[in-house]
Design goal:
Dna Ligase, domain 1, globular, 3 domains, D-amino Acid Aminotransferase, Chain A, domain 1, four-stranded parallel beta sheet, Rossmann fold, 306 residues, alpha+beta, 9 helices
Length: 306
């Protein structure tokens, strides 16, 4: 296969590992800075131009940064118009990046998550606090990533102050119940296709309720319960993601989904579990590409016979 990896830098760990895994399996790979792509939106022959050359790919693997979602998903859509297989679809990426929309979809599917409140007007702050059960509670910026813009408010006065400050900055926020029994730890389940291929427990440093590795947390391999495994697969499927990092908390009433990431990093999960996740992604894409080619061949045969 000719694989295009949509990434800002070839030196990034996840990008480099995907390149390594694809080449080890005999594929041709090109790292493409999606922000440098030019799209020719022609009605009969849509094209993607990169460094003055037309890209010819069988498969793309989007590694779209959160701050570049709009243009990045537009490039993915352009490839989709060219009938190029994408590891994750443009629609699924957009769903996952909109935290409010993704939680609404998970809620519709009956998937467990912390009680969450959302309101536009600062006048409704008390109502949102009451909705999630009062303090302590967690306030999250909708646009935040890697633990940035996530605040634990331990009292109602603190919660009112934080929410008011964010709203006065015209920032969109979610308010969620604080799951104390999680103890500052969460689980990252890495889903590829319809399987959880690796999972790790991330623990925040002392005094820190956020477990993100970027914020000094550490990770160890963990065995998921059947319920946790099924919850992770259902969450990824609900958003339409074939490759996803599903973050969840262990609570007294079962696993609760915090977030579903469409471009999950490979470094933490591979180092903590010893699983070659990059190779599993490439193997999954090989299978999907072969299935599409078989279906196309059968379709052409039916047309000829008809």
């Amino acid at each position: 296969m000719k694989i295009g990896i949509l990434s800002r830098k070839s030196s990034l760990y996840s990008t480099a590992r995907l390149v390594q895994a694809a080449r080890a399996r005999g594929h041709e790979v090109k790292v493409v800075d999606y922000l440098r792509c030019v799209m020719n939106i022609a009605s009969h022959r849509p094209r993607v131009i990169y460094q003055d050359l037309e890209l010819d790919c069988d498969v793309i693997i989007p590694r779209i940064g959160a701050s570049n979602t709009f243009y990045g998903t537009a490039v993915v859509r352009q490839f989709e118009m060219m009938n190029v297989l994408s590891a994750n679809s443009s629609v699924a990426i957009s769903r996952s990046r909109d935290k409010l929309r993704s939680l609404q979809i998970l809620s519709r599917e009956g998937i467990g998550m912390p009680v969450t409140g959302f309101a536009h007007s600062p006048k409704d702050i008390q109502g949102v606090i009451d909705m999630v059960g009062g303090a302590p509670l967690v306030v999250k910026l909708l646009e935040g990533t890697q633990g940035v813009g996530v605040v634990l408010a331990e009292t109602e006065k603190a919660a009112e102050s934080v929410i008011s400050a964010f709203r006065n900055l015209d920032a969109n926020i979610l308010v969620q119940e604080f799951i104390k029994e999680a103890g500052g730890a969460d689980i990252r389940a890495f889903v590829v296709g319809d399987r959880v291929v690796a999972s790790m427990l991330r623990q925040g440093p002392p005094g820190e309720f956020r477990s993100n590795l970027h914020r000094g947390g550490n990770a160890v391999r963990i065995k998921l319960t059947p319920e946790e495994r099924e919850c992770a697969k259902r969450a990824a499927k609900a958003l339409g993601l074939r490759v996803a990092g599903v973050d969840m908390l262990r609570s007294n009433h079962g696993p609760l989904i915090m977030e579903v990431n469409s471009s999950p990093g490979l470094e933490g999960i591979e180092e903590s579990t010893g699983v070659d996740v990059a190779a599993k992604i490439i193997a999954h894409l090989e299978k999907r590409h072969a299935e599409l080619e078989k279906r196309d061949a059968e379709g052409k045969k039916r047309k000829v016979e008809g």
